[in-house]
């Protein structure tokens, strides 16, 4: 596979996994929680690196998992102590992120992990960091990791589809049916954390937010059906990473920045022309009512 | 080390970050009471493309020009969040996520382009992401300090009006306070504080300087006036102390250190705060339990 091919596949996998998770994030109104986790994952990765002195996929994944769960738990704990969720998210993620940045710039800096890498990712290096798999041959490590994570996400959503649906749309009913709502909440946050860290290498911690929220929000304007929304969101995510790569080559600029920007373009188009909840159809529908 | 501390440039920078912290603490109090903490996060991320655009258009790293650019794109971001929230089924938190990530992505694109075409003048633009007080010169500090001072004065001067507008906009309307004017003024104050803070604290963490001091102050008082003073003091101290510590290391970013200082003060407030602090709440629940036990022993309760 060619160099560009691997980059496009990596981008598409980020788009698909984030797009799928994003749907649940949007519908559960936890978009800003994703923003928080995408920042605090940095701390998990730095601490994992300090402990194990390696930047291998597995250690990073575990570190990020802990960071994600810690964030979720802290935010909930502060909320239970009477701080408004908005403020508790703000306090928790900025503090944990600051610890991560200070750790990087004092002790780990300049090794393999620097702050810019963490923020923007290095998708252009991904095709060179390969591992050899039986039968298939050389494959970039990031692609393997993203494929595994995407499969986990698809599997988790598919297996518990009904549970996700009920806990998302009617938590009270879910409780009365005996569905473990809190457990599902933590499972979901774990999924957000793994997806974030898998995408971290490719698009950077901050750009993950764009991939998580924007394609799903755009899909939300096109349909009322959950299944269709999942499909559309994954498609928008993959499409914006491809378009973003095109823009980056065209303008000779940051790839991850362009990918985030491209999600915005897709959202703008959806905002204008989506047949169900877009601007144009909203305006014309008003006229027919009158 | 000593030479750094006694250099006039450092003293100016220190003074300006203290003023920034004071102003951010005051505006943050209003932000906190309006439950808009994350809105400030979105606005500060949205300011990044404005900074870069201003640099690319003017070709100079003049702080005042960059600040104006930042303010414009921050305001556009805030406006777009409102538009998405009001005209679609998408909720405010998702709208904030969209704007902050897409604008930030645009900012990074422009930063990369600026790094390519800037011809050396662009060095230091990176510091707008994490904040680097060391990259500030005296004129930057003066501009920052003056705007912060203006914000502080505007809040102090109309304190009574702000109070009514914050807690009871309807009543404010009735007694003839132009609520709409104050609410737009608030948005401008918020954007001002954010854009002057981004060079010292950085766009990613600027929101923390608005959120954390106000949340901490809330643990000590129920009075708005005291909350303003406390929040401003916590902000001012964090700004000053963080800047001070960041001069010790060669590439210590200022923003995270300021945030960690205020986070430490938050922890102290959380545990020892006289209003709903953990220790106090624990004591009170214990007291209630003890009273109850005594009553049970006396046979007042079953």
Automatic annotation (TrEMBL), chain A:
Stored Gene3D superfamilies: ABC transporter involved in vitamin B12 uptake, BtuC
InterPro entries found in the cross-reference section: ABC_BtuC-like, ABC_TroCD
Location of this chain's protein in the cell: Cell membrane
Cross-referenced SUPFAM superfamilies: ABC transporter involved in vitamin B12 uptake, BtuC
Top-level taxon in the UniProt lineage: Bacteria
Keywords, sorted A to Z: Cell membrane, Membrane, Transmembrane, Transmembrane helix, Transport
Membrane-protein topology: Multi-pass membrane protein
TM segment ranges: 6-27, 34-51, 57-75, 87-108, 139-161, 168-188, 194-214, 226-251, 257-277
Primary site of residence: membrane
Protein name: Metal ABC transporter permease
Originating organism: Jeotgalibacillus marinus
UniProtKB/TrEMBL annotation, chain B:
Keyword RNA-binding in record: no
Source domain of life: Bacteria
Keyword vocabulary terms for this entry: Cell membrane, Membrane, Transmembrane, Transmembrane helix, Transport
InterPro entries linked: ABC_BtuC-like, ABC_TroCD
Transmembrane segments: 12-33, 63-82, 94-114, 141-159, 188-212, 224-248, 254-273
Gene3D superfamilies in UniProt: ABC transporter involved in vitamin B12 uptake, BtuC
Keyword Transmembrane: yes
Subcellular location: Cell membrane
Pfam families, A to Z: ABC-3
Membrane topology qualifier: Multi-pass membrane protein
Similarity field: Belongs to the ABC-3 integral membrane protein family.
Name of the protein: Metal ABC transporter permease
């Amino acid at each position: 596979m060619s160099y560009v091919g691997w980059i496009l596949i990596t981008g598409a996998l980020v788009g698909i996994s984030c797009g799928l998770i994003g749907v649940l994030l949007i519908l559960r109104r936890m978009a800003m929680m994703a923003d928080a986790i995408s920042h605090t994952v940095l701390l998990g990765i730095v601490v994992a690196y300090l402990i194990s002195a390696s930047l291998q996929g597995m250690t990073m994944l575990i570190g990020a998992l802990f960071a994600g769960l810690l964030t979720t738990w802290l935010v909930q704990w502060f909320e239970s102590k009477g701080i408004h969720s908005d403020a508790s998210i703000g306090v928790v993620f900025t503090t944990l992120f600051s610890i991560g940045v200070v750790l990087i710039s004092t002790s780990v800096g300049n090794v393999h992990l620097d702050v810019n890498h963490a923020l923007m990712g290095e998708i252009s290096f991904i095709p060179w960091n390969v591992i050899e798999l039986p039968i298939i041959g050389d494959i970039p490590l990031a692609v393997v990791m993203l494929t595994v994570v995407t499969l986990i996400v698809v599997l988790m959503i598919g297996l518990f589809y009904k549970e996700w649906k009920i806990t998302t749309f009617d938590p009270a009913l879910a409780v009365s049916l005996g569905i473990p709502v809190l457990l599902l909440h933590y499972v979901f946050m774990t999924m957000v954390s793994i997806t974030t860290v898998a995408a971290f290498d490719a698009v950077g911690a901050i750009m993950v937010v764009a991939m998580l929220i924007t394609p799903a929000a755009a899909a939300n304007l096109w349909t009322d059906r959950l299944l269709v929304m999942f499909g559309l969101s994954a498609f928008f995510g993959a499409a914006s990473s491809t378009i973003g790569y095109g823009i980056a080559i065209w303008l000779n600029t940051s790839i991850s920045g362009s990918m985030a920007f491209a999600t915005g373009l897709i959202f703008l188009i959806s905002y204008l022309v989506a047949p169900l909840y877009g601007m144009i159809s909203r305006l014309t529908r008003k006229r027919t009512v009158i | 080390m000593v030479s750094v501390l006694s250099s006039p440039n450092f003293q100016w920078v220190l003074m300006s970050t203290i003023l920034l912290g004071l102003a951010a603490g005051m505006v943050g109090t209003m932000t906190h009471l309006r439950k808009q903490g994350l809105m400030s996060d979105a606005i500060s991320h949205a300011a990044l493309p404005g900074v870069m655009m201003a640099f690319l258009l003017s070709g100079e790293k003049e702080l005042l020009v960059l600040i104006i650019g930042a303010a414009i794109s921050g305001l556009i971001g805030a406006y777009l969040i409102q538009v998405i929230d009001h005209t679609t089924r998408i909720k405010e938190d998702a709208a904030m996520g969209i704007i902050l990530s897409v604008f930030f992505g645009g900012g990074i694109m422009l930063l990369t382009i600026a790094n390519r075409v800037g011809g050396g003048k662009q060095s230091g633009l990176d510091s707008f992401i994490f904040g680097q007080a060391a990259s500030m010169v005296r004129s930057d500090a003066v501009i920052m300090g003056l705007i912060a001072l203006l914000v502080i004065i505007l809040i102090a001067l109309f304190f009574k009006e702000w109070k009514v507008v914050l807690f009871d906009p309807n009543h404010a309307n009735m007694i003839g306070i132009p609520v709409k004017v104050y609410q737009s003024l608030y948005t401008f104050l918020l954007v001002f504080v954010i854009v002057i803070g981004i060079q010292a604290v950085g766009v990613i963490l600027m929101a923390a300087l608005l959120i954390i001091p106000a949340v901490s102050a809330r643990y000590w008082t129920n009075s708005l006036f005291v909350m303003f003073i406390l929040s401003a003091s916590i902000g001012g101290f964090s700004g000053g102390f963080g800047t001070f510590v960041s001069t010790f290391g060669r590439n210590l970013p200022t923003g995270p250190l300021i945030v960690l200082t205020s986070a430490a003060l938050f922890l102290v407030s959380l545990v020892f705060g006289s209003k709903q602090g953990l220790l106090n709440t624990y004591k009170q629940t214990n007291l209630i339990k003890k009273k109850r036990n005594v009553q049970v022993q006396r046979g007042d309760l079953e």
